[in-house]
Amino acid sequence: MGRVKAEASAVRGPSKSLTARLPALFALPRPLRPNLVPTTQELTMADLAFVAATVAVFALVALVARGVTKL
User: Fold this and answer.
1) Which of 14, 44, 52, 69 would suit a FRET pair with 6, their CA atoms being 20 to 30 Å apart?
2) What is the separation of C-alpha 2 from the centre of its chain, rounded to a whole number of angstroms?
3) Distance (Å, whole) CA 45 – CA 53
4) d(CA 47, CA 32)
């Protein structure tokens, strides 16, 4: 059996740098824009894109239906 170490080793104290940085580690990220509410121009463009996509889908469905009837 090996010999047990009789002398006590020194215990290091807590790191001060980590405790000083704790508020910064858990801070919430700041938004890129100060106001997160979308503008009316952004909403209008989103509406136009949705309408254009809907029209394109229905046009594609109409072309497929026309092709199926010719079979």
Assistant:
1) 14
2) 55
3) 12
4) 24
Work out how many domains the chain is built from and give that number.
Answer: 1
CA dist list (Å): 22 to 12, 16, 17, 19, 49: 20, 10, 9, 5, 45
Terminus-to-terminus CA distance in the chain, angstroms? 91
Residues 61, 66, 67, 68, CA torsion sign = positive
Sign of the Cα torsion 37, 40, 41, 47 reads positive
Is the pTM of the predicted complex or chain greater than 0.85? no
**Does some domain include residue 34?**
no
Q: Does any domain span residue 69?
A: yes
Asked if the model's pLDDT at residue 65 lies above 70, the reply is: yes
